[in-house]
Write a structure and sequence with these properties.
- With 513 residues, the protein is mainly α.
- Helix content is 63%, strand content 4%.
- It has 17 helices and 9 strands.
- The strands form 4 sheets. The protein has a 3-stranded antiparallel beta sheet, with no helix packed on it.
- Mean pLDDT is 83; it is low at 41-45.
Length: 513
């Protein structure tokens, strides 16, 4: 069994890689690609300089100007616990500060210069003046200033290269060579660089002006990058992970990236949302089985009676109601002031819940208070009800079908002929041998409930993983989507492994050798 479990755990690695690769490519190949989805996350009110700064950050951290397969390789390297190269720094907010990527070279720079400007080596006293015997807060401020200068310098590079690309487009159109433009009527930089410049065209003056500006911006950004790298060696921030071979291999927590829709580390957002979703599902899951299995047993032992037909009809009717419709109806009748108004419409707690005592009771004035625990239960009644009702039919019908099949087995007739009590026949023989289908259903229902909670959390404004995933999809936040996909994949794979283990525990005939 141990060998089998280890083998299954090892097989999870390529499976997770395959799942995340497919999700990554779907995002990358969607209209606009990854970069566009992240760039619009800030809204339409951003200025051009803000967009340029954000694009510089995205390019520097994710390499969005590289092919999608290269971007996926970089993302995989970040989420892997085994790191290669220099260790990142960890800011007080938990954000990983990574080594800046090389500054992209300007297009057609050879038309205007023999070589690109190089960064001048820093003077020995440069670091001492900024990070010498100073308090950590001053060192941190100095580092942030240098970091800001570098980001602004890269933003100027991006802006200058965007203007140059636009000028090259006009140049290619005036030249009349359609091979220099792609299907989107954008300049094909590689193709243009392989041609000899035609300096007689009117548009060439603009190309030259923007080309020299891009070269100047490149030189300034290269110098700012050198200062930034030097500052990283003196910043008062701890290094991430544990070094195995200094500067070569280290082990660190997976870096899930920064959610640009919220500007916070993804792992922090998940740490806030995951407990909420788990709370709802861990409450709903036992309710499903505590209701569905006994009712399925009752229907099987009373086949054809009113109990069997009534429970079957009720569960089938509940199963036919979509979760979206059920949520809207519950809100409209159970939480509407014009009707019952028995439950809240949204959220997990009432206003001012931080001041509530844990258990219900009266205060010094004799007024009754629900307390934090009862208030939380009051808020989750409707979301949990929407999560559980549809699964009653699946588990109950499966229990009934499995038990009816086992009622006709030879060992059951033998047990009855020997005078075994009917209760023991049902519980020790029939029900136990009906567990395998129920285990299979359990491992499929739990991941499905996690997916189903996306709709429920959106309807009832529950700040869980479902609501987080919906926002990530709407804002096309790559990091949040990939983290959610990886987490759901892990849950499904672990559930399947758990099912195999439970099979062996429920049926001694099943072994994994």
């Amino acid at each position: 069994m141990v060998t089998y479990i280890l083998r299954r755990l090892l097989l999870m690695i390529p499976t997770l890689i395959g799942i995340t690769f497919v999700v990554f490519m779907l995002i990358a190949l969607s209209p606009g690609g990854i970069g566009a989805g992240l760039l619009v996350s800030g809204g339409a009110m951003q200025s051009q300089s803000q967009i340029a700064i954000q694009k510089a950050k995205l390019e520097d951290r994710y390499g969005l100007n590289e092919p999608a397969i290269v971007q996926y390789g970089r993302w995989l390297g970040r989420v892997s616990p085994i790191k290669f190269g220099r260790r990142d720094l960890v800011s007080p907010s938990g954000e990983l500060i990574t080594r800046p990527r090389p500054v992209p070279t300007p297009a057609v720079w050879r038309w205007f210069a023999d070589e690109l400007p190089r960064a001048t080596p820093l003077a020995p006293e440069w670091a001492a003046e900024r990070f010498g015997d100073k308090p950590d807060d001053e060192k941190a401020r100095a580092f942030r200033r240098i970091e800001g200068d570098y980001v602004e310098a890269r933003a100027r590079v991006v802006a200058a290269q965007a203007m140059l690309a636009d000028a090259l487009k006009t140049y290619a159109e005036e030249l009349g060579d359609g091979s220099l433009l792609n299907s989107k009527r954008e300049a094909r930089i590689g193709a243009i660089e392989r041609t000899t410049p035609d300096r007689t065209l009117k548009s060439f003056a603009e190309v030259e002006r923007h080309g020299r500006a891009a070269i100047d911006a490149y030189g300034a950004a290269a110098q700012a990058r050198l200062r930034y790298i030097a500052a990283m060696g003196h910043a008062p921030f701890p290094q991430a992970g544990v070094g195995i071979i200094p500067g070569v291999v280290s082990i660190a927590w997976p870096d899930l990236g920064i959610a640009f829709s919220r500007g916070r580390p993804v792992i922090n957002l998940i740490a806030e949302a995951l407990p909420v979703t788990l709370m709802l599902n861990l409450i709903a899951f036992p309710i499903i089985y505590l209701v569905a299995i006994p009712s399925g047993m009752a229907a099987a032992t009373r086949k054809g009676t009113f109990v069997d037909v009534g429970l079957g009809g009720l569960y089938l009717a509940l199963f036919s109601i979509p979760a979206v419709l059920a949520g809207v109806l519950l809100q409209g009748f159970m939480a509407n002031p014009d009707y019952l108004n028995a439950f809240p419409t949204a959220g997990l707690s009432s206003k001012g819940h931080d001041a509530f005592r844990m258990l219900p009771g009266t205060d010094f004035t004799g007024a009754w208070h629900r307390g934090w625990l009862m208030d939380r239960v009051w808020h989750i009644v409707l979301p949990v009800a929407c999560l559980v009702y549809a699964s009653f039919a699946v588990i109950s019908k499966q229990t009934r079908a499995a038990m009816l099949e086992n009622f006709n087995a030879d060992y059951v007739r033998t047990a009855k002929a020997k005078g075994v009590a009917p209760r023991d026949v049902i519980l020790r023989h029939v029900f136990r041998n009906s567990l395998l289908p129920l285990i299979t259903m359990a491992v499929t229902i739990f991941p499905a409930m996690l997916a189903g909670s996306v709709v429920i959390e959106k309807i009832f404004t529950v700040p869980g993983m479902g609501l987080l995933l919906i926002e990530a999809i709407n804002l096309r936040d790559r990091e949040l989507i990939l983290a959610n996909a990886a987490m759901i994949a892990v849950v499904n794979l672990c559930a399947l492994l758990l099912a195999d283990i439970l099979y062996a525990l429920a049926d001694p005939r099943i072994t994994y050798r």
